[in-house]
Amino acid sequence: MAGASFQIDLDEVESAAKLIRSMLDDLEEPTNHLEAVVKQVKPTVYGADLLGDALVGKTSALGGVGDHQQQVLEGIRTFLTTSGIVAANLLKMAQSHRDTDDQNSQDLHKILRDGGTPPVGGQVTPPVPAPAPTPAPAPAPAPTDPGYVAPKAPTLDYNHPVPPVERPPAGGGGGPHRSEI
Hints:
mainly alpha, 3 helices, about 50% helix
């Protein structure tokens, strides 16, 4: 298809759509394997010590490693679904442009052959509704624990020292090492 300001190579569009589908097919098996592995991991694997509690998410309102892995898997599935829709739309677009180009070509040949005018108000294909967009994921809940707490501000007690300890004056006392004058 060609326009006044741009050109679309429909063969390239179709090959890109087929390449996207091929890549999605290649990603499906590793994604299924990853999902199976993630589902096998139980929270008890992380242990019951402080590190295990942190990995499970007991110390945070944001959830643990398992929760985040589930969210990542949902994101991967959404990506694969959306990419599949993009590939299908590219194929539809290319086919629609091919059909339009064929119709325009037939109309031009008819004009050249018959010397008439092109038909007005030709058959219009009804618009295809777009699929409903997937809803955005819910925002993460706000943390309930204070998390990091900054240390208290320093005090200026060091500017007011305690009174010095009284010590005896130097030079006093005697002993065998000291000679008397």
